[in-house]
């Protein structure tokens, strides 16, 4: 909001006068001491001549408290971690997921889930004791894709199939399970081969729910994006990544080759 005011050429006093506010309100809003209401944002952007910024600023303001959540804050309880995003699963009918490191959750076996949770528990030194409960909750999450009312479109790098983070037994079971999940009619899986010609580079793992939310997994935190213009860029990135992926028989061949490579 401070940058918008600066770019408009107006002073805080001029903006306050046009808005019918006390001048100190502008100071509080610019300094972050007072969270802006939706009405405040609409008034601010309209007076400054940038009404197109209203949806982005409102989304950013509403999401400010939960936009950046450190893993260490939620790793101590797998129940709390698995509860993150449940509302997004329930309220959206289209999921679009991309991964460059781990198997995406709709594809995971219980043993793979357990290995992932244990890995991050140790990495973040979280001292978590409810991993088994977390596994049960993540398995239960599959209900959102079981009735066919929702569509899940996934893209993974081939390296995800080849990573040897966990034992051969866990990876072998996991890879074979993917071949089964791929038969589900409302699930689409594309795999980007190592040697694929591509217009979009491998990026951070991200999950998209409808056109309203993008969740990005970093090493240290979960970042949530709700600004429409940023979401549009992730939609564009996802579509370009998917265009580089192979599907169907070609994807199954990559999975089968990864299974054979374990031996």
TrEMBL record:
<dbReference type="Pfam" id="PF13560">
    <property type="entry name" value="HTH_31"/>
</dbReference>
<dbReference type="InterPro" id="IPR010982">
    <property type="entry name" value="Lambda_DNA-bd_dom_sf"/>
</dbReference>
<dbReference type="Pfam" id="PF19054">
    <property type="entry name" value="DUF5753"/>
</dbReference>
<dbReference type="InterPro" id="IPR001387">
    <property type="entry name" value="Cro/C1-type_HTH"/>
</dbReference>
<feature type="domain" description="DUF5753">
    <location>
        <begin position="96"/>
        <end position="256"/>
    </location>
</feature>
<protein>
    <submittedName>
        <fullName>Helix-turn-helix transcriptional regulator</fullName>
    </submittedName>
</protein>
<dbReference type="InterPro" id="IPR043917">
    <property type="entry name" value="DUF5753"/>
</dbReference>
């Amino acid at each position: 909001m401070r940058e918008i005011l600066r770019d408009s050429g107006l002073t805080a006093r001029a903006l306050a006068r046009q808005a019918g506010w006390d001048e100190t309100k502008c100071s509080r809003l610019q300094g972050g001491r007072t969270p802006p209401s939706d009405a405040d944002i609409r008034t601010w952007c309209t007076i400054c001549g940038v009404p197109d910024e209203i949806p982005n600023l409102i989304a950013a303001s509403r999401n400010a408290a939960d936009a950046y959540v450190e893993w260490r804050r939620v790793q101590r309880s797998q129940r709390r971690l698995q509860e993150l995003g449940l509302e997004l699963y329930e309220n959206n009918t289209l999921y679009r997921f991309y991964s460059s490191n781990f198997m995406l959750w709709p594809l995971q076996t219980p043993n793979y889930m357990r290995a992932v949770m244990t890995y991050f528990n140790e990495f973040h030194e979280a001292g978590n004791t409810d991993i088994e409960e977390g596994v049960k909750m993540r398995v239960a999450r599959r209900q959102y894709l079981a009735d066919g009312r929702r569509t899940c479109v996934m893209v993974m790098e081939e390296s995800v199939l080849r990573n040897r983070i966990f034992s051969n037994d866990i990876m072998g079971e996991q890879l074979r399970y993917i071949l089964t999940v791929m038969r589900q009619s409302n699930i689409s899986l594309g795999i980007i081969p190592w040697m694929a010609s591509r217009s979009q580079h491998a990026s951070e793992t991200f999950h998209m729910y409808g056109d309203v939310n993008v969740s990005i997994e970093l090493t240290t935190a979960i970042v949530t994006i709700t600004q429409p213009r940023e979401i549009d860029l992730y939609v564009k990135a996802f579509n370009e990544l998917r265009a580089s992926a192979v599907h169907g028989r070609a994807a199954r061949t990559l999975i089968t080759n990864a299974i054979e490579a374990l031996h």
